[in-house]
């Protein structure tokens, strides 16, 4: 499917965002590990999360959606999953695949896992290696990629792991295996990544520790084999999805857009900090707490942006937001330098290369130096390009945001990938005044 974004004038209105993708995956999985019934409201009903729901069903977990939108999960307890008769297809979802690998490591059966062409290209060694050390066996395609088979064990060994990357998926996979292991399992991260796993499992009764170490590193520990209490989860709005209307508003003169009920976990809000440093008029009010996470309403107004240097240490708190930040940078006067973006190369696509190529195709002055992205902004982009999303929802949405303020429309090929994380994106944006429509084949 092709979507085309044509230039629009001011944007205005108030919108609620779909549920947070990270928390949605986790609420389904963790509810499955509890003993008893959990209820989830505000779950993101995007394809990634639906893939996690069907994988859990295939392993004998009753997961149901009620007519009022509440999801009800009958937990089977830690270690209670059943051997799936068919391969688990996680679609486009790296989070679903990697966290499930951690769970499966602790179960004494063999399961097979695959995904779409994007997920099959993503590196799994970062998860397989620590889980192997705990005693799980993996057979994977060359480069440790999907499809793979995992044979877990009920008697995993506890692990003390130091991860080379600040990755919440790696950390969570190890912690979930640790949940199935007697004793203490620990993970050290080079910089703190999103901590939803720790918060949610602690809220369900697991013993989770967190310790700051030298150089910004952090050590997380989990005591294995707890009985987890079922929960009522209310999933906050996704700050990573809110990033698209937020940037659209910031680059549109006269825009006033209110984004309601957005998660404000400080390990997720690097983009908003960066936009404020670029001169964006951003205000947060109505701060409140829901299900152990701070949320609030964010108002973004059209602003004269200036280029900035984004500190590399901020990357984990905005890792999925660099594509749309690069769009903001195209509209900011001067140079924006984003350093240390190697992890962007192993997302749904090589986001570093695709952003640079797409921006250049839209007439933006852009350079990649090693793992750094440098954008010279301030002139209105020509637009007029046809961008292939390469099965990457964030690439698709970023260029549709750019097309709204370019001189000529931007068309995105393969825009159906947006359904993985942000169903209703085009109608939410058009409701604010954007001009996004399907292109007849
Ligand atoms: O744990 C999570 O929910 C996620 C972690 C991040 O990936 P990495 O752990 O690979 O950095 C992020 O990019 C992804 O969208 C969601
Ligand atoms: C990287 C992302 O997701 P995942 O790793 O779950 O596929 C993302 O949503 O930008």
From TrEMBL:
Gene Ontology CC terms: cytoplasm
Family annotation (HAMAP family): EPSP_synth (MF_00210)
Family to which this protein belongs: Belongs to the EPSP synthase family.
PROSITE patterns assigned to the protein according to its UniProt record, in alphabetical order: EPSP_SYNTHASE_1, EPSP_SYNTHASE_2
Quaternary structure and interacting proteins, as annotated: Monomer.
Protein name, per record: 3-phosphoshikimate 1-carboxyvinyltransferase
Domain of life: Bacteria
Active-site annotation: 320 (proton acceptor)
Molecular-function GO terms, alphabetical: 3-phosphoshikimate 1-carboxyvinyltransferase activity
Localization annotation: Cytoplasm
Binding site for 3-phosphoshikimate: 21-22, 26, 167, 169, 320, 347
Keyword field: Amino-acid biosynthesis, Aromatic amino acid biosynthesis, Cytoplasm, Transferase
Record: residues binding phosphoenolpyruvate: 21, 94, 122, 169, 351, 394
E.C. numbers: 2.5.1.19
Pathway this chain belongs to: Metabolic intermediate biosynthesis; chorismate biosynthesis; chorismate from D-erythrose 4-phosphate and phosphoenolpyruvate: step 6/7
Catalysed reaction equations from the record: 3-phosphoshikimate + phosphoenolpyruvate = 5-O-(1-carboxyvinyl)-3-phosphoshikimate + phosphate
Enzyme class, first EC level, given as a word: transferase
Domain Enolpyruvate transferase: residue ranges: 8-426
Underlying gene: aroA
């Amino acid at each position: 499917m092709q979507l085309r974004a044509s230039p629009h004038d001011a944007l205005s209105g108030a919108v609620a965002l779909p549920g947070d993708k990270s928390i949605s995956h986790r609420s389904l999985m963790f509810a499955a590990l509890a003993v008893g019934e959990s209820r989830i409201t505000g779950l993101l009903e995007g394809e990634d999360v639906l893939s996690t729901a069907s994988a859990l069903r295939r392993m004998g977990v009753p997961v149901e959606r009620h007519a009022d939108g509440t999801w009800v999960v009958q937990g089977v307890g830690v270690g209670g999953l059943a051997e799936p008769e068919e391969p688990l297809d996680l679609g486009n979802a790296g989070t679903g695949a990697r966290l499930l690998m951690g769970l499966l490591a602790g179960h004494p059966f063999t399961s097979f896992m695959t995904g779409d062409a994007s997920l099959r290209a993503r590196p799994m060694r970062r998860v397989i290696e620590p889980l192997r050390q705990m005693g799980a066996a993996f057979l994977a395609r060359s480069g440790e990629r999907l499809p793979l088979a995992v044979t877990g064990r009920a008697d995993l060994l506890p692990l003390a792991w130091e991860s080379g990357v600040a990755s919440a998926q790696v950390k969570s996979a190890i912690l979930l295996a640790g949940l199935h292991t007697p004793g203490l399992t620990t993970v050290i991260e080079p910089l703190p990544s999103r901590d939803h796993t720790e918060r949610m499992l602690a809220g369900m009764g697991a013993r989770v520790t967190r310790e700051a170490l030298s150089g910004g590193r952090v050590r997380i520990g989990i005591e294995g084999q707890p009985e987890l209490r079922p929960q009522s989860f209310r999933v906050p709005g996704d700050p990573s999805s809110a990033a698209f209307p937020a940037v659209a508003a910031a680059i549109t003169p006269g825009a006033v857009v209110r984004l309601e009920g957005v998660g404000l976990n400080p390990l997720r809000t690097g983009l908003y900090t960066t936009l404020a440093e670029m001169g964006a008029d951003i205000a947060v009010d109505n701060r409140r707490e829901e299900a152990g996470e701070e949320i609030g309403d964010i108002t973004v107004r059209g602003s004269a942006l200036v280029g900035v240097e984004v500190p590399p240490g901020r990357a984990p708190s905005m890792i999925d937001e660099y594509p749309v930040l690069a769009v903001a940078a195209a509209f900011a006067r001067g140079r924006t330098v984003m350093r240390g973006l190697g992890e962007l190369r192993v997302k749904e696509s090589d986001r570093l290369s695709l952003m640079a190529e797409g921006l250049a195709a839209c007439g933006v002055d852009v350079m990649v130096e090693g793992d750094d992205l440098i954008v010279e902004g301030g002139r209105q982009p020509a637009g007029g390009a046809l961008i292939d999303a390469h099965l990457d929802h964030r690439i698709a949405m970023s260029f549709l945001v750019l097309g709204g303020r370019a001189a000529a429309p931007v068309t995105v090929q393969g825009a159906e990938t947006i359904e993985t994380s942000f169903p209703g994106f085009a109608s939410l944006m058009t409701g604010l005044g954007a001009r996004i429509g399907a292109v007849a084949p």
